[in-house]
Each structure stands twice: as structure tokens, then as C-alpha cells.
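Forwarding these from the shared drive since the link keeps breaking.
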Amino acid sequence: MNSEIFSLSERLVSSSYVRQGLQARRGHEQLIRLLLQQGKCPEEGWSESTVELFLNELAVMDSNNFLGNCGVGEREGRVASGLVARRHYRLIHGIGRSGDIAAVQPKAAGSSLLNKITNSVVLDVLRFTGTLCYSLTMISVSLMHYRIEMMWSCAGRASASPSLDVLITLLTLGANGYKKLLAERKELYGHLAQELSALAERHGERLLHTPHNPISLAMSLNRLQTHSTAAVTQLGSMLFTRQVSGARVVPLGVEQTVSGHAFRGFMSHADAYPCPYLNAASAIGITRDDITLCIKRLDKCLKSLSKEASAEKSESGSPAEDVEPLVISIRGSCLID
């Protein structure tokens, strides 16, 4: 609604009420104006109403949303389901042109603007956070989804969905909200390391030394390996069925052939790592409750497997072997789940 429409509204509703509405509208518009002027992630996150207003304004700039539009081309942003249209805020047309998916699409000014401003905001986030693993991971994931979306798009078009998701997230968080998540993640990394180290010690294992990895941690599974390789892989299954997701168990000597190429030490960061291990990560969004529940359930699983192994040893008449844990140093590893 522009000022003329607000003036016309005063014929129907008290002018004082209309002015209040106009001031509220201008508050949203000021945030959008600053975003377009500066191309930076806002310091404070936007409300959902501001984000939706911005997206709706962008959507009406695409030709598939023009009133009275007559599209006779092959790629006109048509959708059969209104649910799909609403899911994407009617930004359906896509971005790019034949030969250059980054080019501005004449029939989709709104989607093209969305893509340009998203790239600018992401670069700003990388600037104030530094090119650390977690920022690069976020961008890598976005690009991965971007490529997948492109495969399903018509020739000469790319989906604007990845840009839409990233922009909504960053505008909602704001720079301060994103920095807060990074600080919380760093703090919880220390907490996870402390809890995992204590758990490992109770079970005769140790937290692996990974000084160059600020996100992922790993604990050895040497004692479990002495029982059987099956026990190591069983631990991963047990954790998953107990709703512990993301904890990755890496057994010894796994080989996997992919498209004719054999990979030794599959799932591990090295061809022949000296011990099996369990990997857990303190990624953005993890909570203290996540860590508490994970450690509690992991402890129960290790106790259960140890008890089963002891029972099997007793039945076979051979005592369980007591093996000293290895001291492992991982230099420059990435161990990212």
C-alpha cells in the first residue's frame, strides 16, 4: 500500500488510525530499504511479518504473478498446486538465462533480486564470521542443494529455492542472532568434549586428540573392538534406534567400491586408521539437552554391549581381555559428520 492508498483509506477509517498503520508500514519498509542499500545482514533479526512482506513484494515483480499475464513460452512459472506456490511464496519462475544461470531473468525481476541480495548477505556473513569450517559448511550445503535443484529445473533456469531458504534464515536471525548461535556452539563444544572424555574414561576408552577440528570430536572404541567388530557396528545401530542421530561409528578396515573405485577405510578420514571410533559434532543449533541425552544413551549402550560380551566370554570359558586404550593424535583432520 502506497501513500495514495492510505489517503483513500481515511475516507473509511479514522485518519488517526490510518496514520498509525502507515507508520507501522514504514517501519517495515525502512528495514527493507536498508537491506537493499547496504546489501548486508541486518544487525537484529527481522520479524516474520517483515520477511513475508518483503517476499510478497518480490513475488509480484515476477511475470508469472502479473495480473492479466499471458504466458505462451515453455518456462512460465506455472504450478499445478496452490500449496506448492505458497510454499515458495509464489517465487516460481526461477533465475538465470540460457548459458548463464546467474544472469538477471527479465521475466523474473523479483526472483533475480532475491538471488542477488542473498549472495550479498551471505558474503557479509562470511566477512564478519571469517572463513571458518562452520560457515563454509553452511555455504557448501546450500550450494549442494542449489546444484540438485538445478538438475530438476528447466534448461536455462535455476530454482530460487536455496536462495529463498538462506535469505529467510539470515534475515530472521540477523547478524547478532547468528553470532549468538556461533558463540553457543563454541561453548557447547567444550561441554561435549568434557562429557565425552569422562564417558570414554569410564569405559576404558579415550577422547581422541583433534586440535585442528573445532566442531567434531571422536572417542576410541578399542575395548569394543576386542569383543568383536560386530559389536562396533552394533553400537551405531543401537544409538540410532534409541533416537541418537548423527553419531557416526567408524569401524576398522571397511572397504567400499563406488563407481568402480575402491575406498579403503571407508567413512574414516584415513585409509588405515589405527582404531575404530565414534564421532559426534557440536554443530550450530546443538543444545545442552542434546548432549546430556546423547551421553546418557551412549553410556547405556556401551554398558549393554560390555555385559553381552562378558556373558559370551563366560560361556566360552575365556576371560575378557583387558586392553589399554591407544593414544591417538589426529593432525589436521576434519572428522566432520
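-- next protein --
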Amino acid sequence: MAPRYQREAAAVDRNTGGWGRVRSSPPPLPKSCTRDNLFAGPPRTSQIQDRGRDRRRMIRSLGPGVHRPAPHPGPQRVAGKRRSAALPASSRAGLPQSAQFCGAEPEAPNPAAPFRAASASSPGSPPVAPAVPATKRPLVCPEHCSDIMLGMIKNSLFGSVETWPWQVLSTGGKEEVSYEERACEGGRFATVEVTDKPVDEALREAMPKVMKYVGGTNDKGIGMGMTVPISFAVFPSEDGSLQKKLKVWFRIPNQFQSNPPVPSDDSVKIEERESITVYSTQFGGYAKAADYVAQAAQLRTALEGTATYRSDTYFCTGYDPPMKPYGRRNEVWLVKT
């Protein structure tokens, strides 16, 4: 008598007129997926059995080329010890030692295991692409990061906000540009300097470091509040464009001026600066480097012939946190000589 799968395949041939074994023909629709019972609710036990039977018949009707998973070899005995079936050497390569062996003596480590080539695969199987070694990343504690971010947000939203002490000496304007002459007090500042990057990119790197320091990333672990504006010095070229250099200056609040906390980040420095006199003009919106350059050019035009100022550097300032969408205040300061 023929095997069972041959008898079922012959039955499929008789029922379908020989089309059941042709690969180009569409497979017969399973009984459990007909239009009548598509929305008939959960399948019954008989329907589940029909699905399995239809699937097995379809696999057999497609011929011997259909992939069938090989059965697990089961437990084996090695040197009198029972352990799970060992994986081939090509499959064990690159796995951690605990995953390579289960109850047997470990083999010598293979230095080339993370870079297993295609030749290590079994004959007849498709080539295996070389594995890319994992990149080592510094360990980061999520709880510590969340504490830092929470401190920054809490300090910027709920901390005390001071204004950089200054005195307005005079005001002026020309055409559509108005400006003030201010005498700004000195003191201790937290500074971060970034080089070899455009101003906008350097500012995105430097500003979070200052905010972390002010928010509690210091030796005392306390939020100091905010002082506005936060200024950063830029360095123009001869054609007016900005060089790839930036230095952020954050004036430490008055409460901590005499003994400022020590920054935990080595890139944050505490410096003392004398008072300065500046010519300031104000504008709104989310300011970019191009906006500061344009406003500085307009201020120079308004001061032409009436004032002297430094040409090698000037300050760009901001008063508002990033989450404030409207009513923003930005300024450009030209340092008086």
C-alpha cells in the first residue's frame, strides 16, 4: 500500500482534475476562510482541524521542493553526560559562552568568531554575511539622566529668574533701528567654549552643558535659578560672516557669586569678567546665526560715525527658554571701546 501522503496527494489530483499539483495554479481556498464564515466569529474546533489538514495537503501538493523544518535531534549523551543537542560550530560562533555550551566542557575561544566568514556555513546553504562587531558604548544610567533632565526643567520653569544688572546710559536710533547704550556689571560667569563648528551647531552643543550645570550638575547638586540674558560671544570675519568659534557666558546668580558651585563637567569653566559697556539692539523670534549677523550689520550702520566698538567680537543674547513660542526677545551687543 502506498504511503499516506501519496494517497492524499492522489485524492487531491482526482478532486481538482490534476490542478492540485501544478505550482503556477492558485492553491485551493481553505474551508475555514470562505466568504460564508469570514465574519462568523471565533473558529470552532472542527474549523481549526480543517485548517491544519488543508495546510498539510497544500504542502504535499506542491511537491518535494517545499521547505520543511527538520525535527530537533533531541537530547544527546556526550562522555556520559546528558545535554541538549549541540549546535554546529558555524551556529555557535559569535555567541556568548553561556549560550554556546550547555552542560559540556567549553571549547577554546575563537578570536575570529565575531567575524565569521561565509565559508563557515554548511554546504548547500546560502552564504552568511560577515557579522559586524558590536560598538562599545559608555554605560548610561537612565535614572541619573532623568534626574538631570528633571533638574534642568524644574530650574528653568520654577527657579528664580534674575536679570543681569545693568544701567541704561543713553538711547538712540537711525531709520528703523533703535539701540541702547548700557553699562553691564561684571562678576563670575559659567563659560563653555566650542570651536571648529558652525555657530548654530556649536550653540546646540554648548547650551545644554550650561543648563545642566545651573540645574544641579555640580558638586553641591543644587539648582541655582536663572540669570537672563544668556550671552555668547561670536567672532566675525572680514566679510561679516561668523567664524567657527563660540563662547557661552552665563552670569551666575547673585546668591552664588561669592562661592559658585564647582561644575561636574570639565568643559564648563568658572571665569570672572569685568563690567562692560555695550550698544544693544533688540529683535524677536527664534534667532539663528544669520539673524544675528543681519542685526549686527544694521546696528553698525546705525552707529556709523557716532560711536566706536570692537570689530573682532560681539555678543548675541537670548532671554527666553526654547519652549516659549511667542514674545521672544533676542539682542545683539557691540562692545564699546
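The first helix runs from residue 4 to 16. Residues 83-122, 128-148 have pLDDT under 50 and may be disordered.

- D.
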